[in-house]
Amino acid sequence: MDNTFLAQFYGKSQIYTDIPNHLYKDFNVKKGLRNEDGTGVLVGLTRVADVVGYKYDDEGHKIDTEGTLYFRGIDINEIVKNRNGLRYIYEEACFLLLFGYLPKQSELDKFCKILKDNYELPDDFLEMNLLRMPGKNLMNKLQHAILTLYNYDEDPDNTDVYETLLKGVQIMAKLPSIACYAYQSKMHYYEHKSLVIHYPRKDYSTAENILYMLRLDGKFSEKESNLLDIMLLLHADHGGGNNSTFTNVVISSTDTDIYSAVSGSIGSLKGPRHGGANIKVALMMDAVISEIGYTRDDNKIKDIVVKLLNKQFYNKSGLIYGFGHAVYTISDPRAEVLRHYCGIVAREKGREEEFEFYLRFERIVKDTLLEMKGLTACANVDYYSGFAYDMLGIPRDMFTPLFVISRMVGWLAHNLENKLYDGRIMRPATKYVGTINEYIPMEER
Ligand SMILES: CC(=O)SCCNC(=O)CCNC(=O)[C@H](O)C(C)(C)COP(=O)(O)OP(=O)(O)OC[C@H]1O[C@@H](n2cnc3c(N)ncnc32)[C@H](O)[C@@H]1OP(=O)(O)O
Ligand SMILES: O=C([O-])CC(=O)C(=O)O
Q: How far is residue 218's CA from residue 212's CA, in Å, rounded to a whole number?
């Protein structure tokens, strides 16, 4: 495509289209839907999850606190701590998020059975949509696959709340197979690897099936599936304000089908400032480690951190992926859990040197962000998740798709809540700040 003219039009357009930055302040526009103090503009009420990173003192000043994440009022740390050998901790969290209470064993069994009965994909779906049409990016492929599921639904445009629950649970159950097969298909087509297709097993949990479907020999240890189960739990929801969940609710508020809304959420989660940060962290750490190795020299690490912030290294975005958060400043509770597990697994797998480097890098990034940008920022969930997945032998292509598998339940829970208790089409306003112009006939321009 010859872009010369487009470049010329684009260059000329800026005289006509420019919006001076001060106007945002003049009209009190909340850029990024944020208040002056960085907190999010209130756009809804929820009882699904609470993301706590600050409180207000008596004078109304924002005070940063350690991060806490509650699912239906229960601290996620309590869920992780009380695991007690349960194989279905993620499924238990799904029940909790969807129905608001902790299931009795019999209720959890019934819920898991519904998921298991829906694990498999419709006839010909695997062949027609995944094997014959491999995708070079799994997130885009997931969007495509979800939109295609619409065609297999007899009543896809039914947006009734209960129907949405049924459809959503079916999507949740099928996502692990879709993602794993999309990965296998990509590897086979683009990398000429052997095509591995294991059908999901009904005696396996979501976490177990993912490991089973990804591995050639289908084998995994209990420790590995336990860690993945916890990771799925940690990613399952993050309140109504995170970009992909908000996207879901915005799209659904038009009363469109759930397949369109989920596809939109996947598009949002792919972004490197959101869920896609987990791949960026892995790539950034590759670049850092190949430059300075697992050095214990803080100065060398600081130099590279400064270069990252000054847009002189890696992708020159100026961002350090895996750090910072819209709500958490002092700590992201999910990163705390993951750091703990990464330490344990790294020792078992002989990867202590790498883990210690991650710890040092984390400390220096935090100090440098404060020093250079005045920003109190912590490692977020995406900083340690890739390292953990890597130790589980999970390929990078699957990092963000795993987030989708896990977060689907959060999207669904907020979608249902919004349908039940808000239900109005989302329609904020923008202020026109251009001029009013005459239409000039062609011969006079
Ligand atoms: C699952 C998740 O979505 S967790 C988040 C995953 N994303 C990442 O890890 C990407 C890196 N982090 C970021 O881009 C940001 O911290 C976000 C998107 C997570 C949050 O963004 P915001 O809430 O807008 O950031 P915040 O208001 O705290 O940032 C203020 C300033 O600090 C900068 N900043 C924030 N995080 C970082 C970072 N990781 N590296 C460098 N600078 C940063 C911002 O660019 C901004 O600078 P500016 O005023 O010069 O433009
Ligand atoms: O809350 C956010 O903005 C991003 C996040 O951590 C998540 O969605 O898990």
A: 4
